[in-house]
Design goal:
By secondary structure, this protein is an alpha/beta fold. About 40% of the residues lie in helices and about 20% in strands. The protein is built from 13 helices and 20 strands. Strands 12-13-14-11-10-16-17 form a 7-stranded mixed sheet, sandwiched between helices. A 6-stranded mixed sheet has the order 7-6-5-8-9-19, sandwiched between helices. A 3-stranded antiparallel sheet has the order 3-4-20, with no helix packed on it. About 50% of the residues are buried. The structure holds NADP nicotinamide-adenine-dinucleotide phosphate. NADP nicotinamide-adenine-dinucleotide phosphate (NAP) binds next to α7 and α8. The site of NADP nicotinamide-adenine-dinucleotide phosphate has 31 residues, from α7 and α8.
Length: about 450
């Protein structure tokens, strides 16, 4: 059985789940299509009331839901708590702002009158990853439900309880049947579902392989798609950076979510004159991290999400070393039960190293010493990914100039790449296309319908 809760802190299987049969999936799609016919007629107030209720339930059940996240994928409990709060903020944000975001846009054509009206497009399929099991769903579902679309979610196979819990929240909030449904199926079946005529758009957050599979199906069947994929964010440190604060953020940027965030700082690129002091302070802090049970409030670094994920990152480190890299700290699995990896720093990474262009999804930092600002920018851009990135400098104008040169969807000055409801999120290159969150996130699966008003006497 491939859909299971396995606690990564112990690697013990807790519960396994039956996959939905084809006819159960068909029924869920039919229900979503029929719910759409009614939901698209509702007004913004009705939609907003529902999402505010979902937000309220998230807050009310925060403790239980946070524990569920930590149990299923190993996130520190305090961070799981933060994820539930953020998810509630996203539901409230779209509930409060969608009507103004989607208001008619009056055009001023050369002749006559015209406007753009925002209409829903139908049933959407979202494929979501395990690393932020509530937040990822919130940023897909909230704007689209406000538009008037209906939602099918295929969640990652290692967080089934979270997937089911979100569907339950919608039911408890009074959502009509079919407005939001959780599909207990594997990834391959999600790709195959794209062909279904009743599904009008697809959104996937996950790996490049899964993204390519979904997007090629979407292309084949002429459906709109959105992809939020991996990243290998550069963390650039210039000579005028405030070193102590920069190092603090470097550690947070790398180990947040036990190192498994698409927007984690992964490549630390430091100009020559401050490289030694940065590395000394960064290594000292990394070495002191308290690794352990994510339910324990004193723990700073928990396990990877699964045994497979821990084995993968340990193998990548070994492959990097075989390709010429040097380990400065850690580099091995922890000698204890569970999916644990030592906090690790590697250096001497060059483009001919087989790991140079790979994403390292865990507590492994790659350190680069470069000649100057231009060399830092060039290295930052030498990546198949273009998700986020950050630059540390006390000269904000300089920071903005560097930001202009970085080929990615988001650049943060004096902070690792981060997220909040009212800031757009998304990447370029191999990190995908489209945007979630903020006003931009509500524009993806909407029909921007032109309405043109002509006098019968008008002629072209
Ligand atoms: P993954 O294997 O691609 O899984 C993500 C989701 O895709 C899961 O629900 C998975 O289902 C499904 N899936 C797998 N193969 C599929 C296929 N052929 N067709 C359709 N769906 C498929 O990703 P992961 O490695 O677990 O997750 C981490 C990746 O996600 C990292 O690269 C990370 O950077 C990226 N990520 C990106 C963002 C962003 O916003 N840009 C945010 C978070 C994570 P199963 O679980 O059933 O296999």
């Amino acid at each position: 059985m491939s859909i299971q809760t396995v606690n990564p802190t112990t690697n013990k299987m807790i519960q396994s789940f039956e996959e939905m049969t084809d006819s159960q999936v068909d029924e869920a799609v039919a229900q979503a299509a029929s719910a759409y016919e009614a939901w698209k007629q509702t007004d913004y107030k009705q939609r907003a009331d529902l999402l505010h209720k979902v937000a309220g339930l998230l807050r009310e059940k925060k403790e239980m839901l946070a524990k569920m996240i930590t149990l299923e994928m190993g996130k520190l409990l305090a961070h799981a708590d933060g994820e539930i709060k953020l998810s509630a903020e996203i539901f409230d944000y779209y509930a409060s702002n969608a009507e103004s975001f989607l208001a008619d846009k009056i055009l001023h054509p050369t002749h006559g009158q015209a406007l753009i009206r925002h209409a829903p497009i139908g049933v959407l399929l979202g494929v979501e990853p395990w690393n932020f099991p509530f937040y990822q769903v919130a940023r897909f579902a909230a704007p689209n439900i406000m538009i008037g679309n209906t939602i099918l979610v295929k969640h990652a196979s290692n967080v089934p309880q979270c997937g089911i819990a979100i569907e339950e929240l919608f039911k408890e909030a009074g959502a009509p049947a079919g407005l939001y449904s959780n599909l207990l199926i594997t990834g391959k079946r999600a790709s195959a579902l794209v062909a279904d005529k009743r599904i009008k758009g697809v959104s996937l957050t996950g790996s490049e392989a899964a993204g390519a599979s979904m997007a090629s199906e979407a292309g084949k069947h002429l459906k709109k798609s959105l992809l939020e994929l991996g990243g290998s964010d550069a963390f650039i440190v210039l000579e005028d950076a405030d070193m102590d604060k920069t190092v603090e953020w470097a550690v947070v940027g790398r180990i947040n979510n036990n190192g498994q965030s698409c927007i984690a700082s992964k490549r630390f690129i430091v100009v020559e004159s401050v490289a030694a002091i940065f590395l000394e302070k960064f290594t000292a802090k990394f070495a002191q991290l308290k690794v352990g049970d994510p339910m324990d409030a004193n723990t700073q670094l928990g396990p990877l999400s699964s045994e497979e994920a821990a084995a993968k990152i340990a193998a990548q480190v070994q492959k990097a070393v075989d390709g010429g890299a040097t380990i400065l700290l850690g580099g091995k699995r922890l000698k204890r039960e569970g999916a644990f990896m030592e906090p690790t720093i590697i250096t001497n990474m060059h483009p001919d190293n087989p790991v140079f262009y790979e994403e390292l999804f865990g507590p492994v930092a790659t350190f680069f010493r470069v000649k100057d600002e231009q060399a830092a920018i060039d290295l930052a851009n030498d990546s198949p990914f273009g998700l986020g990135g950050s630059v540390f400098t006390q000269d904000i104008e300089r920071g903005k100039r560097v930001a202009d040169e970085i080929d990615s969807g988001m650049v943060f000055i004096n902070h690792p790449t981060w997220t909040q409801a009212d800031l757009p999120f998304g990447g370029t290159k191999g990190s995908g296309y489209g945007r979630e969150l903020s006003e931009l996130g509500i524009e993806e699966f909407v029909n921007k319908k032109l309405i043109r008003i002509s006098e019968l006497t008008d002629s072209f």
